[in-house]
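Hey L., structure's done. Input below.
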Amino acid sequence: MERKEILYKSTRSDSAPISASQAILKGLADDGGLFVPVNIPALDKTPAELAAMDYRGVAYEVMKLWLTDFTEKELRHCIDSAYDSKFDVPEIAPLKETSDAFYLELFHGATIAFKDMALSILPHLMITSAAKNKAENEIVILTATSGDTGKAALAGFADVKGTRIIVFYPKDGVSSIQERQMVTQKGDNTCVIGIRGNFDDAQTGVKKIFTDPALKEEMASHGFQFSSANSINIGRLVPQIVYYVYAYTRLLKDGRIKEGGKVNYVVPTGNFGNILAAYYAGRMGLPVGKLICASNSNKVLFDFFETGTYDRNRPFILTSSPSMDILISSNLERLLYHVSGDDAGVDGRLMNELSRTGRYSVTDSMREAMKDFAGGYATEEETFEEIRTVYEKDQYVIDPHTAVASAVYRRYKKETGDDTLSVIASTASPFKFESAVMKALGQPADLDDLELADRLSEIAGVKVPEAVSGLRGAEVRHKTVCGKDGMEKEVRRFLGM
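Output:
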């Protein structure tokens, strides 16, 4: 059966649509908008057919529908190159059952966070896209990270021919292990810079650099072009749809649900990309029940789903779940576009209002179109309590981000009585946030981070992941710190412009 071609357009204008490979290469639309599909494709295999496949098979069946200008050979090569021995379990994304829920473990890749699920394949999609479009410029990956995207992108793009990668992170806004993973990254084409500011400052700075037409022209004259590894890049988002489909098919295969039975997904959420991928899975025809958006104390998304007003004018709170310490959730823009009836004019006005005033409100009809979403949040105290509770009940150790989602789900179920089978996205290994986890478990937390890893290993009954043990004695290679106004200068310095 011939596949329908899927093209991509900006959320902010009605500019001519482009192919998937062109959207992956560009990363961000010229008008500052995000690329969205003109039509959302439908699954052409039943869940029962997908249940007979392994992760790579499911990945191909999902991704072929979105990346229609990739040949089967090209796409399968990208998938096989990504989902290999870099993952420490053959299932790639196993489900762990506890007494209260299923946890979808998305942290078995090279950097022990869910970002590996997409950033293991993005470099291959990017290089294939460059070849397909006869791109002659060197691709410069420019990204902001709240902790996990940075290392996963660095690991994916390190020493990849024809690319360079620059990562900005909030100097005092990531965990010790997260920072150590980034600043010890090898690869002559890698650059890591701490900024004196928070993630939103880093993300805003990156978007400003991306959309500067004069800089874009100057870059081209030096043989460079920007692209992104953040989930603003559709090539980052599409691979994330896969694991929600995969989780459903495993439950079906194991007889935990019947075909057509709905599943709730609970997702710890910062930039909104991970839960948006679950939304897209539902739009493709996967039987999705509620999408439960879990926030930490930076509960801008919870307030949005409660009131219909998005307001980032509030204190920025540093928490034990730093990847969710975000007040500008970029991927929410894609959802706004869809629930407005794919109206770029509406989306453009809302984004302009956000830029000018820091807030916007959506219409009642848009709120109605988001009725499948439920919001919840967990305080720091509730997050730590959830880590303890899950460990005491099931001897299962979860990280603070997963704990936020777990606590939100526990409250949601109590308040609604909804007993639909639910899958919690477990987005990071507890070893990535061992100080917070040990503190939550009532253990000494003032040890060196690698000593903490050894102690946590004993408590959890799990071997210290290579991503952590491999840091012992690793050389710090990236030491640059700048103010948020110095980001463009550092980009120019690294590129020799």
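The first strand starts at residue 8 and ends at 10. The first helix runs from residue 20 to 26.

-- N.
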